[in-house]
Every structure is written in structure tokens, then in C-alpha cells.
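in:
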């Protein structure tokens, strides 16, 4: 890292030495001498860095040099900062007290005398170090031009293509055979260890086996856990629970976690992979405890794969009679295939001489894939044979055991990195092993440390940093890249051996701690430059930075990582004061989730700061002193939901490139002059505000401030567009020039008085650049969309239209279509009729659409045709004709659709499902049908004319996993096709009073794991006990819930038997005796329905039953509202939902449906991911949690409520309880006395809190 610091010093010295007048003029000669000395030393640093691994004297000399270079870098930073602040003071019309104090003679930091003394001391030390270097005969060597050219060449590459899995076919076959073999009677679970040294590909082999199709079909559950160096029982069990449930699990007591895990696993046959197990601590005792637990699960035939480098671990874990599978190196032929495809991928030609040297290098890698990949990656950028020979000769010098030789080879690859990349790589040792590294964060903190050497303007530094990352990725210093929807690499990992190499080079400079570790024995605090705290192992509500940090006065990085969603716990003000006062050389500081109610004013002491993360905190304002941090490049304030305004002088932070304001929901506006920050790459939120909205007399920025912010990239959300005066003001924002912007959200506030003409003009003027990938419109009041919607958005991938109350058509004519659109979500557009205003031209097809969600668009009847590749369809409160059109757009049954998720909710006038629906759903896995009270059957039986479709009907849904039906009172039996859904796992039936019994064929569904029934009076009575008539049909199901009661768990009956009522038994016998007669009548009715024309008005079909007559007139608005009231779920239905232990998607759907049901009684504003109701609670959904914020708290902003607000992050189950009581409060207001009585019986007086209920 010394080379990088030297480069940074020389870069800072250039403008300082060129100063012709002013404060720095008196130091000019000293700067020139310092520059000469540093340049002389830099010339030998590359050679010294390579020799330091073998020569202790060179290593000591290099360590001493680094400390002095760091001091010099800090001093030059002080000079630059002083000059900037003095210039600001002279240019400004007022003087901030703190800035004035900064320049008084009492401040020793900027005192000219003290600076002169520090500069002289540094020069003296450097002269001594420069003299000492001569005795080492270090070679003068500057940056390799070929290496620099390699980075430049790689900047032209759009994406990284990983190389295939080479060899290991025999290993794979052997282990898969062991997995698929039957287990003996005595041993229920077998453990198969894979043993081998680091880098051999144990993890890659396990992944290949884990994803094999034959293995996947053999096991009901598959779980992958990376153990690494932390064999903690509670952590492992929690990770297993998270892997199964796909949601975050709280850090509970181990016994509670085991109990939850046992419920989730049931008796399912599972495959568990424990990757990278070590022998730290009492691993034997912990393993024995876990094995005892897994045997209690009684999942016969389950298997566990363990990968480890240690023979002792493998032998102890292995099942008796099973030998660990010892992984060997690749054969020479396999090694050469891997080496050749990497080393000769670039400009290097596979000439005879290169092949000869390459094979020698490859043989010394001993068949270790990681070493082959990394060394071949290093050679791929060297087109001179001399460089290949040099690497071969150095490789031959390594001795010791195999692993030391491999580490030596990896270190050799590091030595051959371009100097710009070396510091970037070593810095990554701050992250724990197997950590998902956020690439954006990584590049930002590289910027903060000055590792990025950009020859362009400083605004391009982030792009250069991204290319640094891509270069390291292409050389296999990183692995397992993961991309976002736009193709940007978002996450990556480091291999354990590469992490070891980085740690070995970092020495005492970098320390990575667990959250609760102390700093004792962690080296000399005087040399500690970078520290991180890992919060994964034991998230805690309270955390305090180690006291030893007070003596680490040269610290440059303070970085909590793996922080839990609710934060790292409160940091006391004095703890923050200690960090701010003692660690004044910090470049990177994160206090994410520290629950700060205010930021200490002493933060102005951190004048070197480049990266500051204050996200997930509670402050309402930022101190003005933060604007003194003139070197700040990154300021992150995400999820600061109480933050109301930014300091007015933040516009003077001219180096700022990232201002992240995601979910700052209380922000009233941005300060005037924000448009002067032309280096901004990220401004995630721009709030248009009226002058009166900003306090203390400050003037808020208008939308025209966006005009010159042409470097903006990623996402931009513009709120309160109703406050834009006119089209001219909107046009001044110049969004069409922002070519790097990927996602744009345009929001008008609701409720409001709509001026349609002004909205149309504003939206017309806000035309984005053609490169835009995602567009969200919310609250727009115009009748149509501007022409640029059809002509400009040819690269659009995601489109969301929400709350467009007056919109009738999306396109006025047949313009160009959206060829790349994958996600289309349309919500709450009550007047929307069709995609296009004209019907004369054939509607085209969405060629790339994979996710379609239409919600609360009751008049929408015509959309572009859907492709067969669509994955998800969600139709909620739309006209039946839209469902018919959706089915009509299917391809022929010979090429079925790939839909996996289908939701049908509140379809107006729906009495039977469209005939062509089922034969096209061969890939369907999740089916929801909700709130269609007129629906009489879920698929009519085939008449004689449709016999040829029978096989298609019966086989269509063979992949169905989950089937949910809610509030379908007209359904009298489950559809016959369901018996052929052999993979069905969950069957959930709610508020289907017409369903009186389960079919006789239900026991055929052997994969059925969960049955949930609620609000079905007759059916519940036949299932509530083992003596009930339908119990034999469900006895095989592992988990059964009836009306909120857990009747069966893990196949064990739980309910206490109650004496049977003779009258009830007689009623059941009578209903059972009439079952066949009812089925015959129903079949006759269904065939009559099937023969009717589909477009006949529902009001004419009044001869089926008297109940239907009351609700079938869809044309009457008053009766339509009554129909909606009839969709209100019953209390028993809600209890059934609560017993589902639903995942986040199920919860979101249920919650949204609840609010929609009451839309005629409650004012609801449904904007993007936010739902606001009149129960004085705001909700928003994020990943695996639903968050609740008291509306009154948001309005009043009382400080005393802040602590209470911290606890308003509710789990899925707690949110379900909240929703349940919203429904109960509404149920009390019904006019129907029977419903009132039912609600009073099941709901105790008063509404307890969700947390109390869930406990």
C-alpha cells in the first residue's frame, strides 16, 4: 500500500508546489524537496514490495516508510483543506463561528509554525529512509506500461463471463451415488465429508452436486450454509431457518430456534451442505449436539455434505463406515485446458514458446484450480515472453508444503498486479471470509482512501474504480459476481485463500473484528489504519466501540459491516465524541444504524473525511458543522425517516459525488444552490417544495436546479411535482440530457386538487434520456401520456403506473413499442380503458414481458398480447374481459405458457374460469383465486364435445406447489384436476361456505404438506377432530390448521378430543349421505353454465340459486359497493390466515387486499410501496419486513416518541395481527347483526398491540 500512498502524495504536491501566492507560498521550497524525495523512493517501491515477503530487513524498512508516508499524506491534506476553507471564508458574505475558530492561532492544527515543524520532521525522516534503502540494492522500477494498458483494455469489457467447471466428473458421480443410495435402518442421517486443501474446488464441487437435477428431486429440502471459522450452534440453526423460510430470523435462544427449525423441517428428507468447516473451539461437542438434534427430526434418508481442509474434522464428522472423499488436484490435461482458456484469452498468442513456459508454470500449480486461474489471469495481460519467464523463475523459488507453495503462487499473482490494484485488493481484508461484498460500497471507500488514480477529471473516479474492480474480477481475485436487473455487478466474494493472501500483506494496518471482540493482542494501535466490526454473529441492541480506539489516533477507516436491519444499537454521545475527537484522520466513517438522535457538532474535526454513512438514524436535522468537511465525496442518509432538511451550506461541498437520500420520507426540500454540485453522480431524491416549507428563512431549491447535474446515474426520485409552476420550469430540469440515469420516479402528491393541463405540460417537459431502464409514474392527473412515452423509452425494462386517476389510454396512436419491457405494473387507474386509443391497428405483443401486475383498473379491457415466456401474472379488481383477452393471447396448447405465479382477485362478473386457461399452465407453481363471490366452479367438467381436452386438463397443473382460494362462496367442491397436481404442497381454503366436504381422492396428493381451512362452516366441522367424517382424507398431511387452531403438527394430532354431539353426528351423517346427490346436481348445473355464452350479463343468470340474485347486478354502483362489503373476510378467515405463518409475498397480498376491500369507506393512497389508511398508521414494505410508523408521530415530530418509533419494525406475523384487528374494527361497524355477533364472539374487547399478541 506504500506505492498508493506515495502516488497520492505526489498528486497532492503538484498543485501545492505550484502555488504562486497566499498561505502556501512560504512552503513552496519544502514542497519541491519533499516531492523529489518521494519520487526517488517511489521508484523502488515495486521491487521492495516483492522482496518484503522473503527479506525481513526490507519488510521492516517498508513498514517504517509507510508510517512516514501516511504522516506526509495527512499533513498535505491539512494544507489543502486549510486553503479550501480560507478561500470559502473569503468568498462568503458571512463567517461561521466554527470556521473562524478553525483559523485562529489557538488552533494548533493550522498554525503555520506547527505545520512548518511537522513538514521539517517528515522531510528529515524521509531523507534517512531514502539513505537506508541504498544498502538493499533495490531495483528502480516504475509502473509496468503493459499492466496499465491491460486495465485500460478491460474497461472496454461490458461484463465478466465466468469459466466453466473443469474436471471433477468422477468425483461428482461418486458423491451423487452416495447421496442417492438408500440408508441403512440404524443410521437415519449420513454425513459425507469432502476433504482437500484450499483452492482445490471443494465448494465448486459441492455446488455442482447441490444443483444437480437428480439430487434436487431426491430431497424435499435443500439447505446451504457457509460455516467458515465460526462454528456457532445458534448461528448455524438460524441460518438454516433463514434458508428454509426465505426470511430473516431473530437472534433467539438456541432451544427456541431448534424448535422452530424442527417444525419447518418436519419429517422431510433434506440435504444439508456445511461448507468450509474448521476446528475452532469445542467443535466436537457442538457437532454432537447438532447431530442429536437432527436425529430427533426423524428425516430418514437425509444427507449432510461437509467440506473442510482438515482431516481431523472430516474423520470426526463422517458417518461410521463412510470414508471422507479426498479431493485431489486436476490432471495435467484438465489443468492445461483451464490454464489455456484463461492465459490466452487476450492479446497473448499461444505461440510455441508461450505454450512451453505456460505448461511449466501450470505444473507448479499442482492441479489446484484457484492457483491455475489466478496465475493464468496474471499472465494473460503480459504479451512479452520475458515476463512469463520471470514469473516461472520466481515460482520455482517457493518451498514448504503444498499449501505454502500455493499461497506463494497466489502472492506472486498479487506481485504482478498493476500498482493501482494492489492497495484495492489488500484493503478487502477488512471484510470477513465468504462475505457478500457490495461493489458500490467497495468502490466508494476505495475513493475515500485515495486508491483510485484517475487521469481524467475527478468526477470520473467512480467509473475508474469500477474498472479496477472488473480487472480484479477478471484475474480471479474476486469470484461469484451477482448482477442487478440492469447488468451492473452488485455483489461479489473473495476466496478464502485470496483473503489469507490479503491479510498476510496487510500486517498490522488492517484489523477485522467481531462486534463483541476486544482489541487486545491486535497489534500496535499506533500503526492501526483500518478497522471493521462484523455484526453477523451476535446482533445486539447495545454496542460500544472499544475503548482502545481512543489510542488509535491514526485510524483511517471505521466500518461496521453485516449490521442488522434494526441497526448496531445505540451509540452514546460520549462514544461518538471519542471517535470524532481522537480519530481525526478518518477518511471512511460509517455510523449506519447507530440510532443517533443528533450528530455531535465535533464532527467538524474530521476534516480528512471522504465517506460518511449516517443511514438508519433518528436525527431530524444535520449540524451545520458537517459542511466544513470540504473533502467529503460520499454522504449517505438512507432511511433517515425523521430527517426534515439538510444544512443550507451543504451546497459548498463541491467534491460531493454521492448524496443518497433513499426513504427520507420527511424531507421537506433541498437547499437552494444544490445544482452547483455538478460532480454529483447520485442524488436519489429531489423534493420540490414551496418556499414556506423550508425553515429558518432558507430558500428551497426548485426543479430547475437539476439542469446542470448531467452526471447523475442510477436512480432519481422527484416528489411533489404538483408544485412545479409550469411546463417551462419543468423543461429547465433537462432530464433528457441525463444519459447515465437508469431509473426515474416522478411523483405528484395525493390527495390534491388536480390541474390536468398543468400535469400534462409538466410530464411532457420531463422527457428522460433514451437510455432509461426503469420509469415510475405516481399521482399524475393527465388524461393521456406524452408522445415521448412511445418514442423514447425503447430501452425501458420496468414500468410502473400508479394512481393515475384520469388516465384513459397509455398511447394515443400506434407509435413504437417497448421491445425490452420485462416488468409492467399498473395500479389504481380507475378510468384506464386500453393501452391504445385506436382499435383499428392490431395490438402488438410484449416480446420480453415476464411480470404483469394489474390492480384496481376496473375498466381496463385491452392490453398488448402477452408472450409465452411470462413468469408472473397478477390481476386484481379488473374486468372479466381482460382475463379473457389474457387467455386468448396464449399460444397453442402444444407450446404451453411458462407462467409460474398466477393471482386472480375480484374479477368483475367472473362466474367460470375461461375455457382455455388450464391447458396452458403446465409450469404453474402458485395459484391464488380471491374474492370472486359469483364464481361457481374452478373449472367446468368436459362435455362430450371437449373430451379431447381431458388429458390436457388433468395434466396441466402437475407442477402446482401452492393453491389458495379465498372468499369463493359459490364453490361447492374442489376441482377434479387438482387430484393430478402430484407436487402440491400447500392447500389453503378460506371463506368458502359452499364447500361442504373434501373429495375422496385427496389422499392421492402424497406431497401435500399443509392444509389450512377457515371460515368454511360445514367443512371445518368435518375436520376439527380425528372422529370427524373427513379426517381419514387428511390424516396423512403433516400440518393442519382449522379456523386458527393447530390440529396437527409434524403428523402428530394435537387437539384434545371433545365428546361428540349426537345431533351434530346425525347432521354429518345426513350431509355425507346426501353428498353423491349434491354432486350430481352440481355437475348438471355446471354443464348448463358451461354451455352459456360467456358475455351474457350476470343479471340474466338468476335461475341457479336465490342467494346469487342478491349480488349479481354489476352495473349498479351501489350494489357493487355492497358486493365489495361481502368480500370482507370473516373473523375465522383472518384467524386462518394468521395460522399460515405466511411468507412476505402472501402477507403483502393479504394486507393490500384488506385495504382495498375497505376503499369505499376509507381514504387510501396507494403509492409505490406505501399504503396509507385512516387508522393513523403508515406502512411500507421492505424485503422481509413490513414497517409501521405512527402517522401522528410523523406529523408532530415529538422527540419523546423517537424511542417508541424504533420498535415499529414489525415482523410478518405481527403485521398479520395488525391487519386482523383492522378487519375486526371494520367488522364491528357492519349493519348485519349476525356478522356483529360473530365478530364479538371471536374478538375480545379492546385492541392489544401486535407485539403483545405475537408473544
Amino acid at each position: 500500500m506504500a506505492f498508493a500512498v506515495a502516488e497520492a502524495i505526489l498528486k497532492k504536491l503538484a498543485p501545492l508546489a505550484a502555488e504562486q501566492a497566499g498561505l502556501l507560498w512560504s512552503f513552496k521550497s519544502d514542497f519541491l524537496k519533499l516531492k523529489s524525495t518521494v519520487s526517488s523512493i517511489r521508484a523502488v517501491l515495486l521491487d521492495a514490495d516483492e522482496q518484503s515477503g522473503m527479506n525481513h530487513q526490507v519488510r521492516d524498512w517498508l513498514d517504517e516508510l509507510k508510517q512516514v508516508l501516511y504522516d506526509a499524506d495527512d499533513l498535505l491534506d491539512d494544507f489543502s483543506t486549510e486553503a479550501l476553507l480560507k478561500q470559502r471564508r473569503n468568498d462568503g458574505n458571512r463567517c461561521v463561528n466554527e470556521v473562524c475558530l478553525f483559523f485562529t492561532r489557538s488552533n494548533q492544527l493550522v498554525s503555520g509554525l506547527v505545520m512548518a515543524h511537522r513538514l521539517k520532521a517528515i522531510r528529515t525522516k524521509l531523507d534517512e529512509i531514502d539513505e537506508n534503502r541504498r544498502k538493499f540494492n533495490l531495483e528502480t522500477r516504475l509502473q509496468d506500461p503493459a499492466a496499465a494498458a491491460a486495465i485500460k483494455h478491460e474497461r472496454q469489457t461490458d461484463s465478466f463471463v465466468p469459466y466453466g467447471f473443469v474436471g471433477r466428473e468422477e468425483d461428482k458421480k461418486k458423491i451423487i451415488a452416495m447421496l442417492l443410495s438408500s440408508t441403512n435402518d440404524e443410521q437415519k442421517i449420513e454425513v459425507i465429508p469432502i476433504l482437500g486443501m484450499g483452492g482445490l474446488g471443494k465448494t465448486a464441487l459441492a455446488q455442482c452436486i447441490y444443483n444437480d437435477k437428480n439430487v434436487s428431486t431426491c430431497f424435499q429440502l435443500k439447505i446451504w450454509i457457509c460455516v467458515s471459522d465460526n462454528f456457532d450452534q445458534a448461528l448455524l440453526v438460524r441460518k438454516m431457518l433463514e434458508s428454509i423460510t426465505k426470511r430473516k430470523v431473530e437472534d433467539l435462544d438456541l432451544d427456541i430456534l431448534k424448535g422452530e427449525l424442527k417444525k419447518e423441517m418436519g419429517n422431510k428428507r433434506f440435504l444439508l451442505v456445511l461448507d468450509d468447516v474448521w476446528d475452532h473451539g469445542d467443535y466436537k461437542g457442538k457437532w454432537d449436539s447438532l447431530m442429536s438434534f437432527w436425529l430427533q427430526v426423524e428425516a430418514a434418508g437425509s444427507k449432510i455434505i461437509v467440506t473442510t481442509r482438515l482431516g481431523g474434522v472430516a474423520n470426526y464428522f463422517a458417518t461410521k463406515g463412510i470414508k471422507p472423499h479426498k479431493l485431489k488436484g486436476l490432471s495435467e490435461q484438465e489443468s492445461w485446458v483451464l490454464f489455456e482458456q484463461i492465459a490466452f484469452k487476450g492479446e497473448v498468442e499461444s505461440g510455441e514458446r508461450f505454450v512451453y513456459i505456460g505448461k511449466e508454470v501450470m505444473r507448479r500449480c499442482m492441479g489446484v484450480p484457484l492457483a491455475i486461474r489466478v496465475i493464468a489471469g496474471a499472465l494473460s495481460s503480459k504479451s512479452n515472453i520475458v515476463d512469463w519467464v520471470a514469473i516461472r523463475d520466481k515460482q520455482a523459488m517457493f518451498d514448504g508444503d503444498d499449501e505454502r507453495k500455493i499461497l506463494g503462487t497466489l502472492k506472486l499473482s498479487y506481485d504482478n498486479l498493476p500498482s493501482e490494484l494492489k492497495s484495492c485488493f489488500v484493503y478487502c481484508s477488512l471484510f470477513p471470509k465468504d462475505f457478500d461484498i457490495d461493489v458500490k460500497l467497495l468502490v466508494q471507500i476505495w475513493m475515500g482512501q485515495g486508491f483510485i488514480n484517475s487521469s481524467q477529471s475527478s468526477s470520473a473516479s467512480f467509473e475508474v474504480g469500477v474498472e479496477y474492480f472488473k480487472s480484479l474480477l477478471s484475474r480471479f481475485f474476486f469470484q461469484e459476481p451477482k448482477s442487478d436487473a440492469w447488468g451492473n455487478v452488485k455483489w461479489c466474494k473473495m476466496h478464502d485463500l485470496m483473503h489469507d493472501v490479503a491479510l498476510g500483506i496487510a500486517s498490522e494496518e488492517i484489523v477485522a473484528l467481531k462486534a463483541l471482540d476486544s482489541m487486545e493482542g491486535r497489534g500496535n494501535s499506533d500503526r492501526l489504519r483500518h478497522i471493521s466490526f462484523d455484526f453477523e454473529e451476535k446482533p445486539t441492541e447495545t454496542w460500544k466501540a472499544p475503548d482502545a480506539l481512543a489510542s488509535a489516533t491514526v485510524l483511517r477507516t471505521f466500518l461496521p459491516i453485516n449490521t442488522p436491519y434494526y441497526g448496531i444499537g445505540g451509540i452514546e454521545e460520549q462514544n461518538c465524541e471519542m471517535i470524532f475527537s481522537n480519530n481525526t484522520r478518518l477518511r471512511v466513517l460509517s455510523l449506519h444504524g447507530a440510532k443517533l438522535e443528533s450528530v455531535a457538532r465535533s464532527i467538524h474535526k474530521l476534516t480528512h473525511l471522504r465517506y460518511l454513512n449516517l443511514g438508519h438514524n433518528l436525527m431530524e436535522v444535520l449540524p451545520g458543522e458537517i459542511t466544513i468537511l470540504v473533502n467529503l465525496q460520499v454522504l449517505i442518509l438512507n432511511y433517515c425517516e425523521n430527517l426534515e432538511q439538510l444544512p443550507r451550506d451543504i451546497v459548498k461541498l463541491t467534491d460531493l459525488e454521492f448524496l443518497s437520500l433513499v426513504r427520507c420520507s420527511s424531507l421537506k426540500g433541498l437547499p437552494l444552490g444544490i445544482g452547483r454540485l455538478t460532480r454529483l453522480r447520485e442524488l436519489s431524491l429531489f423534493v420540490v417544495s414551496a418556499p414556506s416549507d423550508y425553515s429558518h428563512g432558507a430558500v428551497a431549491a426548485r426543479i430547475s436546479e437539476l439542469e446542470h447535474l448531467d452526471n447523475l446515474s442510477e436512480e432519481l426520485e422527484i416528489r411533489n411535482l404538483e408544485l412545479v409552476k409550469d411546463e417551462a420550469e419543468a423543461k429547465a430540469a433537462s432530464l433528457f440530457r441525463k444519459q447515465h440515469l437508469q431509473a426515474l420516479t416522478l411523483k405528484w402528491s395525493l390527495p390534491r386538487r388536480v390541474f390536468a393541463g398543468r400535469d400534462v405540460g409538466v410530464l411532457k417537459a420531463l422527457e428522460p434520456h433514451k437510455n432509461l431502464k426503469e420509469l415510475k409514474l405516481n399521482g399524475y392527473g393527465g388524461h393521456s401520456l406524452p408522445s415521448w412515452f412511445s418514442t423514447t423509452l425503447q430501452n425501458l425494462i420496468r414500468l410502473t403506473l400508479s394512481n393515475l386517476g384520469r388516465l384513459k389510454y397509455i398511447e394515443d396512436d400506434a407509435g413504437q413499442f417497448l421491445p425490452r419491457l420485462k416488468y409492467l405494473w399498473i395500479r389504481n387507474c380507475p378510468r384506464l380503458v386500453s393501452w391504445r386509443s385506436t382499435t383499428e391497428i392490431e395490438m402488438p405483443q410484449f416480446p420480453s414481458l415476464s411480470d404483469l401486475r394489474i390492480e384496481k383498473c376496473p375498466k381496463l379491457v385491452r392490453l398488448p398480447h402477452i408472450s409465452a415466456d411470462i413468469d408472473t401474472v397478477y390481476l386484481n379488481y379488473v374486468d372479466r374481459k381482460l382475463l379473457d383477452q389474457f387467455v386468448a393471447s396464449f399460444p397453442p396448447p402444444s407450446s404451453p405458457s411458462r407462467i409460474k405465479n398466477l393471482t386472480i382477485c375480484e374479477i368483475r362478473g367472473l362466474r367460470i374460469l375461461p375455457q382455455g386457461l388450464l391447458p396452458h399452465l403446465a409450469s404453474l407453481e402458485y395459484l391464488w383465486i380471491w374474492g370472486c363471490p359469483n364464481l361457481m366452479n374452478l373449472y367446468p367438467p368436459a362435455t362430450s364435445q371437449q373430451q379431447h381436452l381431458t388429458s390436457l386438463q388433468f395434466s396441466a397443473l402437475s407442477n402446482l406447489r401452492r393453491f389458495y382460494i379465498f372468499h369463493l362462496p359459490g364453490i361447492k367442491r374442489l376441482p377434479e384436476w387438482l387430484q393430478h397436481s402430484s407436487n402440491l404442497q400447500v392447500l389453503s381454503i378460506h371463506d368458502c361456505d359452499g364447500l361442504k366436504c373434501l373429495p375422496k381422492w385427496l389422499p392421492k396428493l402424497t406431497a401435500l404438506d399443509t392444509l389450512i381451512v377457515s371460515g368454511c362452516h360445514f367443512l371445518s366441522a368435518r375436520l376439527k377432530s380425528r372422529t370427524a367424517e373427513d379426517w381419514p382424507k387428511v390424516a396423512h398431511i403433516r400440518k393442519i390448521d382449522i379456523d386458527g387452531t393447530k390440529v396437527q403438527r409434524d403428523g402428530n394430532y394435537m387437539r384434545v378430543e371433545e365428546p361428540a354431539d349426537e345431533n351434530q353426528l346425525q347432521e354429518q351423517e345426513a350431509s355425507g349421505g346426501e353428498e353423491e346427490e349434491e354432486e350430481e346436481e352440481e355437475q348438471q348445473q355446471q354443464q348448463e353454465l358451461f354451455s352459456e355464452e360467456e358475455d351474457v350479463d350476470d343479471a340474466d343468470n338468476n335461475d341457479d340459486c336465490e342467494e346469487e340474485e342478491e349480488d349479481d347486478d354489476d352495473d349498479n354502483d351501489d350494489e357493487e359497493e355492497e358486493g365489495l362489503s361481502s368480500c370482507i373476510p370473516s373473523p375465522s378467515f383472518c384467524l386462518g390466515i394468521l395460522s399460515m405463518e405466511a411468507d412476505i409475498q402472501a402477507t403483502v397480498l393479504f394486507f393490500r387486499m384488506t385495504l382495498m376491500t375497505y376503499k369505499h369507506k376509507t381514504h387510501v393512497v396507494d403509492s409505490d410501496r406505501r399504503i396509507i389508511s385512516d387508522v393513523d398508521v403508515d406502512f411500507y414494505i421492505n424485503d422481509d419486513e413490513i414497517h409501521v410508523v405512527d402517522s401522528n408521530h410523523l406529523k408532530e415530530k415529538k422527540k419523546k416518541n423517537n424511542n417508541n418509533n424504533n420498535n415499529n419494525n414489525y415482523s410478518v406475523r405481527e403485521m398479520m395481527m395488525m391487519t386482523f384487528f383492522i378487519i375486526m374494527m371494520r367488522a364491528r361497524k357492519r349493519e348485519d347483526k349476525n356478522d356483529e355477533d360473530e365478530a364479538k364472539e371471536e374478538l375480545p374487547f379492546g385492541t392489544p398491540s401486535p407485539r403483545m399478541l405475537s408473544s
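note: The longest strand covers residues 221-228.
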